Each structure stands twice: as structure tokens, then as C-alpha cells.
Amino acid sequence: MAVVLSPVRRADAAALVAANLASRDYHAPWVSPFTDQAGFEAWFTQGVSGPNVGLVARDKRSDGIVGVLTISQIVLGTFRSDYLGYYGMVGYARRGLMTEALRQSCAHAARELGLHRLEANIQPENHASIALVRRVGFQKEGYSPRYLKIGGAWRDHERWALLLE
């Protein structure tokens, strides 16, 4: 394995802020992750409280941050589902590392969290992200007009899901 996936820790703050700042243009217009300590604290707090898990993917050789994955809005009971969010860092793009990180996060969701289903919502123009979920086995389930407000505008999304069986 070339990627090490672990739960986010407070000690990750400086490295995550720096990686997000360096990847700001790469992330646009799809996602606007935190770029300062206050933003990290808000994201971190969501990942350690409530129905959310924040994960950090690091390159095994350099220990650099490959990407961030968030398993959120976890619902257990008879549903056992969640929403999966993720983004990669520009310095590790096009090496297959986010594919490995996404596979590991799916395995974590099944084994550690006992989830049955993951759902990822992706803007239709984000071809790289759609190709990523396809490689991991997600299936397109539908289309949601004006689904999420990103960058001040309501954006359409495709709904992709993976059954963890």
C-alpha cells in the first residue's frame, strides 16, 4: 500500500492548512476547503463529534497529505448509510493515490463503522471525481438539481452510491 489512512488529529492542522492552500486552484470550483486554523477547528470538531468521521490520507513514503475524506451524516439503524466527501491535493494528483485512499475509506466505513451504503454527490462537470468513484465501483443512481450551495451558487449534482457488501 502506498497510502496510509487515519482519523484526523489536531496535530494534522498545520499540514492540512498548508496542503489546502497549495491546492486552492486545483480544488476550484468543486470544493472550498478550510485554509486557516479556524476553518480546521470547525472541520475537526465536526469529525470528532456527531455523526461524522474525518480521515486523512498520507503518502507512505513522504508522509505528505494525499487527500481528505469525510464520512458524514452517518445514520445507523436499518439505514446504515452516510455521505462521502473527499478531495485530493495537487502534489499527489494523477498517481492513483486517491483511488487507493477512497478504497481504504470504503473498507473503513464497512469494517469500523458497520455501514451498508456510501453516497457521493458530484457536480456533473467534475469528470475526474466521477472517474474516481467509478474506479472504486460506485454506481450512478440519479441527478439532483440545485443540490448543494458551493461558491455562493446552488449546484446540480449526480448521486453515486456504493453498497458495502
TrEMBL record:
| Segments forming domain N-acetyltransferase | 3-165
| Cross-referenced InterPro entries | Acyl_CoA_acyltransferase, GNAT_dom, N-acetyltransferase
- What does the UniProt keyword field contain? Acyltransferase, Transferase
GO molecular function annotations of the record:
protein-N-terminal-alanine acetyltransferase activity
Q: Which Pfam family, just one, is annotated for this protein?
A: Acetyltransf_3
Source domain of life is Bacteria
Q: Give the UniProt entry's GO cellular component terms.
A: cytoplasm
Q: Please report which protein family the annotation says this sequence is part of.
A: Belongs to the acetyltransferase family. RimJ subfamily.
The record, for PANTHER family, names:
[RIBOSOMAL PROTEIN US5]-ALANINE N-ACETYLTRANSFERASE, GNAT FAMILY, PUTATIVE (AFU_ORTHOLOGUE AFUA_3G00765)-RELATED-RELATED
Q: What is this protein called?
A: Phosphinothricin acetyltransferase
Organism from which the protein derives: Neoasaia chiangmaiensis
